[in-house]
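Per reviewer request, we include the raw input and output of the structure prediction for the construct analysed in the revised manuscript.
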Amino acid sequence: MFGGAMLVIPLRYRLATYFVSAILLCVSLGSTIWLNYFRCTTDTEPYVYVQTYNDIYKLTGPLLELAKKDPRNYQLTGNMIRTSTYPLPWILGDFPHIGYYEHENLPATLDADFLLVQEDRIKDVEAKLRGTYYTEPLRIRAYQDTSKLYLSAKVFKDFFPDRLPDFRGKGPG
């Protein structure tokens, strides 16, 4: 568009055309930066449709930090009990022991190093858990129910130094 304007506009107005084009490009760049870096997880922003919320860092931050400290932590187990977990399978693709359970499916053993449980399944899952966990609410995207994140107290205790575990299951663990 700007290149076409340069061909159509007479030479004597070329400087003004450059100036107007530069202003329009700066405004466009500014709004792009504002949307992509500052309002990317705002429900009221009409251009944000399926943007992943920063809440996922509650899981990915500690998990990736553990794996960075010791590569054996890539073997941690996790259960994602949600109808939609995208983009977590892509982000956590290097962790081979993560199960993704949709609808009414549940793993044989619910206890894991971390769990992400959809709001309407929390009651059923908590009744079967035996371990001790730190919990956090977590929302992946807009238009989805909030999930509950469970982080094993044994594995993630260093991330919560001044906090006691929030959930204690019904047995040893």
